[in-house]
Amino acid sequence: MTGRRHRGRGALAYSECVAARGSGETSTVKQVSDRVLTVPNLLSMVRLVGVPVFLWAILNEHDVLALIVLMLSGITDYLDGKIARTMGLESRLGQLLDPIADRLYILTTIVGLAWRDIIPWWLVAILVAREVFMAIVMLRVRSLGQIGLPVHFVGKAATFNLLYAFPVLLLAQVSDGVRVWAEPLGWAFVWWGTVLYWLGAYIYVLQLRDLREFRAREAAGHPA
User: Fold this and answer.
1) What is the per-residue pLDDT across 50-85, written as a single tens digit (0 to 9) for each?
2) SS3 content of the chain, % helix, strand, coil (to 5)
3) Rounded distance, CA 161 to CA 159, Å?
C-alpha cells in the first residue's frame, strides 16, 4: 500500500514538473481533483451520449442532424474546458473523458465519411494507425505508474484541425455551391490535422522518454 502511495506521489510530481516546465512556472501548479459530479464532467458525458446519434445520422445521410450534433459537441467541448479552468473544476475523470470523446467523434466521422465514399479508406487507416500507436504508448505510460501524459499544444492543434476538417467535408455534400469552397477548406484541415496528429504522437514519445528518466531518478532518490 505504501508503494502505491509513493507511486501516486511520483506520478503527480512528474505531471507538476512537466506543467511547470511548459508554462515557465517554478512553484505554483494547478492540481486536479478526484471529483466526478462536476459541470465539465457532465458536459463531457453529454458529448459521449451524442456519439451514437451522430454515427446513425451520418450513416443514414441525415447530414443536417449530423452537423447539428457535431456543432453541439464543439460547443460543449469548449464550455467544459473553459468552465474547468476558470472555476478550478479540473478533474482526473475530465482529463480522461475529454480526449475519449474527441477521438470517438473523429473515429465515427472518418468511418462514416469513408463508408459514403467522401474520404478514402487509406486516410482512415493512417489515422487509426496513429490511435493504435498511441494506445501502445499509453500502455507503457501506465506500466510506469502514470495515468496519462500532459496534453501539449500540437496535440490540441491536431485535434482542432481534424474536428473541423470532417464536418466541413460533410457540409460540402449539401450543395454544389457549398462544395466549391467547403471541399478545399475541409481537405486543408485534413492534411494539416493528419501531419500534426503524427507529430503530436512523436512528442508524446518524447514525454514517455522523460517519464522513464524521471522514474529512474526517482528510484535513485533524486526525483527533482
Assistant:
1) 889 988 998 898 888 888 888 888 788 778 777 777
2) 80, 0, 20
3) 5
